[in-house]
Amino acid sequence: MEILKQRILKDGVVKEGNVLKVDKFLNHQMDVKLFNDIGEEFAKRFAGTGVNKILTIESSGIGIACIAAQHFNNCPVIFAKKTLSKNLDGEMFVTQVKSYTKGVTYDVMVSEKYLGKGDKVLIIDDFLANGCALMGLIDIVKQSGAELAGAGIVIEKGFQVGGKTIRDMGVKLESLAIVDSMDNGTITFRD
Predict the structure, then answer these.
(1) Binding site feature residues for 5-phospho-alpha-D-ribose 1-diphosphate
(2) Which reaction equations make up its catalytic activity (predicted)?
(3) Is residue 134 part of a domain?
(4) For the whole model, what pTM was predicted?
């Protein structure tokens, strides 16, 4: 997706430890027009798959997933929560996810009320690096008995193992921008 790649080159900042900071438009300050273009692109790439629910993980994927849902007949968006709160009740699907950027392992959960047999689920997230978050969300879909339509990722770090791991599992994975390297602060993309 060329518009996304150009935005990453313009406003993305490479930080120490292979961290790509895109908080100017993606995961702190959000460019809603760009999110709409992203949602439209995901709808094209997953056309005909029968998606009726979108699943993401808090918090950076929520805005993207909500805007994308408009392009999937306004289907519901479910987000896996990283902390138990008084608002969560009933049985939960639970899995563990290690955050690449925070270096913390979370128990993430989704209420069994919102996901189950008969659902066709598209997972959407902002980043894919080592694949821990995506693997956790895939596990939740499996626990629920729902069918996984695929995963839509805004930015994939192609030089890390996550994308290969997920594709090797046979999951339809669509990444809108795949970063091949960030050597010396210079971002290069896979074609």
Answers:
(1) 129-133
(2) XMP + diphosphate = xanthine + 5-phospho-alpha-D-ribose 1-diphosphate
(3) yes
(4) 0.95
